[in-house]
């Protein structure tokens, strides 16, 4: 039973990471559409947010298999 609960937690973490990544890039596209000259400033910020959101999911995978 505990393996099933770990995988449910991993699925919830994956869903949260996917929603977070979608919101990050939606805000990036919205910002570039409003001010195209700000793309050089917004792109590193969007990629950093993507990396942090993906790191949360990778940690969830590790914890799901370790616990």
Polypeptide structure, described:
The protein has 67 residues and is mainly α. It has one domain (2-66): F1FO ATP Synthase. It is 91% helix and 0% strand. The chain contains two helices and no strands. It has helices at residues 2-34, 39-66. The radius of gyration is 16 Å and the shape is elongated. The mean pLDDT is 88. The chain crosses the membrane at residues 12-33, 45-66. InterPro entries: ATP_synth_F0_csu, ATP_synth_F0_csu_DDCD_BS, ATP_synth_F0_csu_sf, ATPase_proteolipid_c-like_dom, F/V-ATP_Csub_sf. This is ATP synthase subunit c. Belongs to the ATPase C chain family. Residues 8-67 form the V-ATPase proteolipid subunit C-like domain.
What labels would you give this structure?
F1FO ATP Synthase; 67 residues; 0% strand; single chain; mainly alpha; elongated
Under CATH at level 1, the class stands as Mainly Alpha
Q: Which second-level CATH architecture applies?
A: Up-down Bundle
Radius of gyration, in Å, reads: 16 Å
Helix content: over 70%
Overall form = elongated
Domain V-ATPase proteolipid subunit C-like: 8-67
Membrane topology: Multi-pass membrane protein
Subcellular location: Cell membrane; Membrane
Protein name: ATP synthase subunit c
Short account of what is shown:
The protein has 67 residues and is an all-alpha fold.
What secondary-structure arrangement, pairings included, does this model have?
Blueprint: H1 2-34, H2 39-66
Domain V-ATPase proteolipid subunit C-like: 8-67
Protein name: ATP synthase subunit c
InterPro entries: ATP_synth_F0_csu, ATP_synth_F0_csu_DDCD_BS, ATP_synth_F0_csu_sf, ATPase_proteolipid_c-like_dom, F/V-ATP_Csub_sf
């Amino acid at each position: 039973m505990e393996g099933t609960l770990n995988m449910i937690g991993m699925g919830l973490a994956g869903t949260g990471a996917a929603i977070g990544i979608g919101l990050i890039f939606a805000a990036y596209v919205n910002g570039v559409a409003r001010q195209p000259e700000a793309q050089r400033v917004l792109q590193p910020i969007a990629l950093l947010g993507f990396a942090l959101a993906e790191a949360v999911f990778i940690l969830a995978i590790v914890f799901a298999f370790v616990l």
